[in-house]
Task: structure prediction
Amino acid sequence: MATTTAVSSTTATSVGQNLEKAFQRWIDAMEMESKYVIALGDYKKNQALGTLREAVAAGQIAKARHAATVVRELENAMLGVKRHRRRVTNRIRTIEFKAADVSLVRHGENLSPDLLGRMWAGLAFFSRLAPQEVINKLSTTPIAKDARDGANYCLIREPSVPCSSVPETVNSMAGLLTWMQTNRVMPRRGKPAFAQVTAAFSQVAAGAEGYARPLEASLREMEQGVLDAWKPMMLAILADDDVSKAIIKASLDDK
Result:
């Protein structure tokens, strides 16, 4: 029994370390977003300058005045880059803390009740960042049959009390996580539920790659001069940033 416990503990520690690193990939995603915002401003300003030069050369006074206005708006928007970078720095600091919190799942039944809220808050934070398809997948992933038995779980505030099995009405991993949070339940290390729950956490962490991928693609499009910055996905990504909003407004004025 002691050997089994030691193996479970070692595995759980490894899971926790891997999870924390996985969630820290969101730092790279935020850096990519910042790089995209700044590059977008420069890209749209250069486009507007090109329009301005062409209008002046063609003697199109009204068009030239409009283009000059757009250039000024974009230059003003880019003055907020330092503020934008501070926001990104603060968000990265938050990600570092939340990555440590969400990886507390590695403690399983040994998690301190006082840390339970921090773990779930961490998962909620990253779930809000993750692309919708990640959340949709959790909502359609079934619970493994051997992960339903109550022996898989521990009532974190009453560990000596046997835990009930997962209700039949709970039929997805998203539902299981909600049930666990509501009932203050943690999966026992070494049990099937522990493997499936930590896998679900890993899926949310992996959402960072899905978040960064369209940004990387759009940066390549900028380099090629064929960017469509008005894709719904890109507008959704940029909607939460003041600098981005200013760039979007000025650029839309130029359309």
